[in-house]
User: Fold this.
Amino acid sequence: MAVKVLVPTVLQPLTGNQATLICNGNNVAELFDSLEESYPGIKSRLFDEKGQARRFLNFYVNSEDIRHLNGIDTPLKDGDEVSIVPAVAGG
Assistant:
């Protein structure tokens, strides 16, 4: 099952400067495990030591925020698109 992952610029040094990756996983958690195998160190930038998504990152599956779906247990299917989006703050 191929899932497209959109990587923000700030994390691209961990992916060989690739903005788009094709990975596998039956759900979001498995997808990020797969990413870690291919790009060691990326998972620790996305999740804290308790396995929770870092506060300043948002994850979307086909433009749907996973917080409103099943979190990291959100199922994936072939052709889905997962976006990693850093939070933006300003004043």
Residues 28-38 form the longest helix (11 residues). Helices lie at 28-38, 42-46. The radius of gyration is 12 Å.
